[in-house]
Prior knowledge:
Blueprint: H1 6-20, E1 35-42, E2 46-47, H2 51-61, E3 66-69, E4 76-77, E5 82-89, H3 90-121, E6 127-129, H4 139-148, E7 162-164, H5 166-172, H6 175-185, E8 191-195, H7 198-207, E9 211-215, H8 219-229, E10 234-238, H9 246-250, E11 256-258, H10 261-264, E12 271-278
Parallel strand pairs: 6-11, 7-8, 8-9, 9-10, 10-11
Antiparallel strand pairs: 1-5, 1-12, 2-4, 3-5
Helix pairs in contact: 1-2, 2-3, 3-4, 6-7, 7-8
Amino acid sequence: MNPNDPTLQRCVAEALEEDIRSGDITAQLIPAHQRATATILTREPMVLCGIAWVERTFHQLDPGTSLQWQLREGESAAADQPLLMIEGNARNLLTAERTAMNFLQTLSATATTTRHYVEQLGESPTQLLDTRKTLPGLRAAQKYAVQCGGGYNHRMGLYDAFLIKENHIAASGSIAAAVSRARTLAPERPVEVEVESLDELAQALEAECDTIMLDNFTLTEMEAAVALSQQRVKLEVSGNVSVEQLRAIAATGVDYISIGALTKHIRAIDLSMRLSRSE
């Protein structure tokens, strides 16, 4: 991710505005020209993610701030391992600290959680997908973090792919009618249908959609769905999937497993920034 990406810049600017408003009154206790060095370290094992957001945060306040990362994006860190060495104006380092740490602890948490889930799949060709269950304002950031952890992205939003669910089907009249209308509205967009039974699966296959989401299917039903579809479409499993179930689900032969927990059930990584005054 490029620190100059417009979406990232806007995200960081809004986060800093939320925190600073009219000014950091505590930082004003420090002499205006005081220099300092700082180290950000992790208190627990993690997968590093969020470098571009951290760099943009510090550089938006002071482009001259020096940042030396000790790891590359997507690499694993052990507990108490230094992640970043910083040198710059003391006031700016202190003002940027919380915002930078918020991005880093959240995105690293998403990447770390994703890595843990991916590891459970082993050599299986089944891909792990995220969902739209992200923190408001951090959609692109968290989906990027999923990639850092080894996962894959589902649709970015409501605009780039059709996902026809129960209420869409009810309002349209049938699966066939909904898929037909989608093909007419945006023939270039992929069409996915969520089904809750093998009967609905048969209807979705008949409608010739691109992907079928198996919602809360049992393992036996998943195996039947794979046999019934005969690789005519991609099959995605979703609905209260736990990390303990991943290998068994993948063994049924489905193509994707989508999990909201990758972005909505995360626990922020425990980070610390230690600052010392430069003479």
